[in-house]
Amino acid sequence: MRLVPTSLFGRLVLVLLGGLLLAQLATAYINLAERGQLLYRAGGMRLAQQIADIVKLLDALPAAERRKIASVFNAPPLVVSLDRPPLREEGTGADSDFPRSMFSRVLRYALGDDAKIVVVHATGGREVAGAPERPGPPWGMMPHRMAGAGPPGASFLVQVALRDGALVTFASEVSPQESAVPWRVALTLVILLATVVLLSLIAVRWVTGPLSALARAAEELGENLDHPPMAETGPAEVRRAAKAFNTMQQRLARYLSDRTRILTAMSHDLKTPITRMRLRAEALEDESLRGKFVHDLEEMQAMVTQTLEFMRDTSAAEPVQRVDLMALIESLRTDYADMGKNFDVHGACAEPLPARPLALRRCLANLLDNAIRYGERATIEIEPGPRQLVLRVLDEGPGMAAEELERAFEPFFRGEASRSRETGGSGLGLGIARNIARAHGGDLTLQNRAGRGLVATLTLPRAGG
Amino acid sequence: MDPQDHVLVVDDDAEIRTLLCDYLRRNGYRASAVADGKAMWAALARAKYDLIVLDVMLPGEDGLTLCGKLRVESDTPVIMLTARGEETDRIVGLEMGADDYLAKPFSPRELLARIKSVLRRYRTLPRNLKADTARRVRFAGWTLDTIARHLVSADGVVTPLGGSEYQLLRVLLSHPNQVLTRDQLMLLTKGHENDPLDRSIDLQVSRLRHRLGDDLADPTIIKTVRGQGYVLSVPVEVEH
User: Searching chain A, which residue's CA lies closest to the CA of residue B148?
Assistant: First the structure.
């Protein structure tokens, strides 16, 4: 599976969604972190106040009574102990350790600047290692529990030196449940994301819609230059593209029609001189000279006629109808028999074929003419497939050089076999036949047969034009 | 051939006029030529012509219009010279009442043969003054499209016809319920008389029956009249 979708629609959705998701996550992270800090600060403040109060109280008591009072305060989440060895000050990693420095600052504020205070993270390895030295019930439990809880309920060990030098140690954590992500925030996020996904889908569809229309128009242009112009509506960029496309189509059509007009006019104008020459040739006394003149003139005439046929728009003039293909081939056989030419037919197609009957007839006639002219014997093979019909015109002639097979469709191309022999033909027949095949949504190709001869393969779709 | 047959050539190209007249004269016809419709009417008022060779592309009124007007008052045979040779052009030409058409550039010998056959047809057969302007002819569930020259079945499937099959069917359809001899059919479709040994009309009729789905053993559309010829024995409906 590819990671990047192939369609522009897919890509835009991916980029938009990915970006939005990233932005949302970043925002959520920042919001939560800020919220966490606020909670810490509030929670820490209360805790520092509590610790300060206890310290003041213990300070005022004689050493013997401290233990009794301390045990009263010793209740989770705050553990008070008088037996802890001195803690070592942690390196002040300033920014990264915002909660701790904040906490110690608050504590210092409550107890006064000259108080000896050490605040360390209870999760630090040092602290956990130090715990088993005095396995009193609260102490045995506290570091373990706190280490297990871990962030976000970050916990601290606070050690304060009393006035007489005794150390009192507090273990506490900022209540973790307070900093959990509330479901309300999560729901808001989900709704926001869903809305954004939906809207971006609509927006992207909106943007890529005209692109698909443009692609469709370009495809249709390939088949028909006189296709109606695109609607110049929608956003400015789309309107501009549609307008540019329509202008291009107009220019192409004008260019093509100019060329067509020139060639058509030339071919038409040649008719009159050819007619005159044919009449003049008839006045020649020399029989063999007259024959040669007539032959040349007939060739010129064939070129003119075929050129006009080639130039004529085969697709526009004739409507697509359901055609009995076998009757069409039969009618060709009758006409060819009348001219003393014959061909065989193998296979059949009972279903009518959607086609332009006159154009299709011309296409087949051109293929048969070639097969009979160069290939001695012509055979039609019909193979009706489920989606398309394949019709082959086979001959038993010399075939063509491999590199000539495609060039044979170019206007006025004459193959080696055609040039060296007195076969006539205009060099447009195959081009006309292929134009007709393609206007039907099919195609026409040439191949050499395995043994001897050439096969022209005509494919025609069986449904739709 | 009657050496006195007089042919009028109407063409705007001066050289073709001269060349064509010379050619026709060399081949035993009297020939005159004019350049356009106005001159044609003048010539027709002065003399009687046996046949008119009429170019479609003419300055002023074109050949098709002239042919249509000519048919209103005269049955002089007309051979049209069409410039395009496209299907519609030649069909319109025939519809306007032309007896035959020939695409330019034509073979002079072919023109000579056509002139000969049109004159013979004109003299042998009683002709209908009215031009045959049928666009579609309906009969026995079929529709003959005279422009595309193919049959369309009752359910809209196009059934193409060979050239000779079309000609034969067209002749039969324009003479419904009228017995036509093999000679007449030959003359009307091919322009020459039947060789007594030639069975090609019989062959064409049987092919046409097959095409129309007519029962070959007991035909109902094209019936055989023993010893006489053939008759189209279904109602014909013509659409112009």
Answer: A358
Judged by CB atoms closer than 8 Å, whether chains meet at A279 and B106 is answered as no
- Kindly report the backbone phi and psi dihedral angles of residue A321, in degrees, each rounded to the nearest multiple of 5, phi listed first: -130, 165
Name the CATH architecture for the domain at A319-461: 2-Layer Sandwich (3.30)
- DSSP structural state of residue B212: T
CB B79 within 8 A of CB B111: yes
pLDDT in tens, A321-355: 899 999 999 999 988 988 888 999 999 988 899 99
Contact (Cβ atoms closer than 8 angstroms) between residue A179 and residue A11: no
- pTM of the entire predicted model: 0.59
| CA gap B111, B109 in Å, rounded | 5
Q: What is the ipTM of this complex?
A: 0.74
> Closest chain A residue to B156 measured between Cα atoms?
A322
Query: What residues of chain A lie within 8 A of the CB of B157, using their CB?
Result: 321-324, 352
Q: Tell me the C-alpha distance between A148 and A364, whole Å.
A: 88
CB pair distance less than 8 Å for A357 and B148: yes
Question: B6-124: what CATH class?
Answer: alpha beta
Phi/psi at B79 (5° precision): -110, 120
Domain ranges of chain A: 8-179, 213-312, 319-461
User: Is A453 at the interface with chain B, CB within 8 A?
Assistant: no
> In angstroms, rounded to a whole number, what is the distance separating the alpha carbons of residues A355 and B117?
37
Nearest CB to B160; choose among A280, A294, A327: A327
Task: Name the closest residue on chain B to residue A324, using Cα atoms.
Answer: B159
